[in-house]
């Protein structure tokens, strides 16, 4: 009889307090001693008075009796191994907070001003309206726009201490958890960072946050394709990205940069799709009319060229801009702007 065979029997001993994981998977089998006609298993417990100790000793004994040859002497002992608490070491601390987040998706664009933040904020609200648990981290440390777009400027995230580490609680509104460096700066104050500081601040906005359980964590990435993006994607378990563009021909070069970045060896992340923003202009008084002021079919052409699906087309409507400035995202409305974001959210869910 070998130790791995004994471990196989012990896989059948489930810990009812730990989602029915086995004592082997939980690392509770401290040692297995095998002698002639004798086996002794030592189970480790993190604390002295684990209420399940007796139950687990009994279950382990039963599993061994069932599987060992008759007449084998069976002993089950216990040992206390207190869990060593990790010492606070700064940034990396909050990382495990992300283990409760199912999908981390970056919202990116090759260049600034195409409506990336507008799409990110409204996609978050639309996903929340569809019943998902959603968070959004504003990773644009140079020009954070989430506080304004959500009407949460002036609010300050609470900082809590948990197991010796400091975590920020996101601001909750519209059913979404928001975090932005903008909450820590006076309104209108320019944020000037030197390289590594910017990267650290940005990582903090994502990693040192008590997100809790989330279906989707969206990251509004800074515009462009620089070092900061590479660090961001490498240090954060980002699953995939969405690229936002406008329909003009000139946008193609920027989208190419964005696509190349995500497909590069260093980053290598899935691109869920392209979102074409400002696809057409629709005046409020003529909601059925579409004016293709930036040209027609640009998004589709890019989608074909890169082999990436076009997952959303957002019209240029005055209300999207006004709602952004007023802090009430368009995705809350029932008009064509709200519909466009709800459709985008549904598509993102199906693609994921
Ligand atoms: N579909 C739209 N209809 C009307 N206005 C829009 C639309 N999309 C974006 N805007 C407006 O355009 C401006 C730029 O949008 P936004 O801030 O979302 O772009 P961005 O790509 O995040 O910019 P930056 O690169 O500065 O982060 C904002 O004032 C926004 O309200
Ligand atoms: Mg932005």
Helix content: 25-40%
**What is the number of helices?**
10
**What is the CATH class of the largest domain?**
Alpha Beta
Rough outline: elongated
Distance between the termini: 46 Å
The tally of strands reads 15
Q: What number is the mean pLDDT?
A: 87
* Tally of individual domains: 2
Q: Which percent range describes the beta-strand content?
A: 25-35%
Low-confidence stretches: 85-94
The distinct bound ligands, ions and cofactors come out as:
adenosine-5'-triphosphate, magnesium ion
**CATH architecture call of the largest domain:** 3-Layer(aba) Sandwich
Structural class: alpha/beta
The whole-angstrom Rg is: 26 Å
CATH topology-level fold name of the largest domain? Rossmann fold
CATH homologous superfamily placement of the largest domain: P-loop containing nucleotide triphosphate hydrolases
Assembly type: single chain
Describe this structure in words.
This protein is an alpha/beta fold. It has 2 domains: 3-80, Fe-S cluster assembly (FSCA) (GMP Synthetase, Chain A, domain 3), CATH 3.30.300.130; 91-351, 3-Layer(aba) Sandwich (Rossmann fold). It contains 10 helices and 15 strands. It has an 8-stranded mixed sheet with strand order 10-11-7-12-6-13-14-15, sandwiched between helices. α8 links the parallel β14 and β15. α3 packs across α10 (336-351). It is elongated and about 85 Å long. It starts with a helix and ends with a helix. The model is unreliable at 85-94 (pLDDT under 50). Adenosine-5'-triphosphate binds next to α3, β14, β15 and α9.
């Amino acid at each position: 009889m070998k130790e791995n065979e004994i471990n196989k029997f012990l896989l059948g001993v489930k810990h009812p307090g730990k989602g029915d994981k086995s004592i082997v998977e939980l690392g509770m089998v401290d040692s297995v001693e095998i002698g002639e006609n004798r086996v002794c298993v030592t189970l480790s417990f993190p604390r002295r008075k684990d209420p399940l100790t007796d139950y687990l000793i009994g279950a382990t004994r039963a599993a061994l009796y069932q599987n060992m040859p008759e007449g084998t002497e069976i002993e089950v002992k216990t040992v206390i191994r207190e869990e060593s608490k990790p010492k606070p070491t700064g940034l990396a601390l909050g990382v495990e907070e992300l283990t409760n987040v199912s999908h981390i998706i970056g919202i990116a664009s090759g260049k600034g001003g195409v409506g990336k933040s507008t799409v990110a904020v409204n996609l978050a609200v639309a996903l929340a309206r569809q019943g998902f648990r959603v968070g959004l981290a504003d990773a644009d440390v140079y020009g954070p726009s989430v506080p304004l777009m959500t009407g949460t400027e002036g609010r300050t995230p609470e900082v809590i201490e948990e197991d010796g580490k400091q975590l920020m609680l996101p601001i909750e509104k519209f059913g979404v958890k928001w975090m932005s460096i903008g909450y820590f700066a006076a309104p209108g104050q320019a944020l000037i960072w030197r390289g590594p500081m910017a990267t650290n601040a940005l990582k903090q906005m994502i990693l040192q946050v008590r997100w809790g359980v989330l279906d989707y964590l969206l990251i509004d990435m800074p515009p462009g394709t620089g070092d900061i993006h590479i660090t961001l994607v490498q240090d954060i378990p980002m699953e995939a990205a969405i690229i936002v563009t406008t329909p003009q021909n000139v946008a193609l070069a920027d989208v190419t940069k964005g696509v190349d970045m995500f497909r590069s060896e260093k980053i290598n992340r899935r691109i869920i799709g392209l979102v074409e923003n400002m696809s057409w202009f629709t005046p409020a008084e003529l909601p059925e009319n579409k004016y293709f002021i930036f040209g027609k079919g640009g998004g589709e052409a890019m989608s074909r060229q890169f082999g990436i699906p076009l997952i959303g087309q957002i019209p240029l409507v005055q209300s999207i801009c006004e709602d952004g400035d007023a802090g009430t995202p368009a995705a809350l409305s029932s008009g064509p702007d709200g519909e466009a974001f709800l459709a985008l959210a549904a598509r993102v869910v199906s693609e994921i």
